[in-house]
Amino acid sequence: MTMESGSGTIRIGIVSVMHFMIDFLCAYAVFGTFRYRYDPYQVYLGYSFFAFAVQLPLGILLDRITGSGGRAKDLPAVWFVTAGLIVTLLGTVTNPVVLGVGNALFHTGGGVLSIQEDDRAEMRGRGLGVFVAPGAVGLFLGGEISGASRTAVLGVSLLILAGLWGLLYRRVKNEQREPASMPELCFTKPHDLGVILACFAVVIIRSAVGTAVTFSWRTGFARSFLAVLLLAAGKSAGGFLAAACGIRKTAVISLLAAAVCYGFKEIPAAGCAALFLFNMTMPLTLYILSRRMPGMPGLAFGLLTFALYLGFVMIYAGGLEIPYIGTAGSLLSAGLLYYAAGNDER
Question: pTM for this one?
Answer without folding.
Answer: 0.91
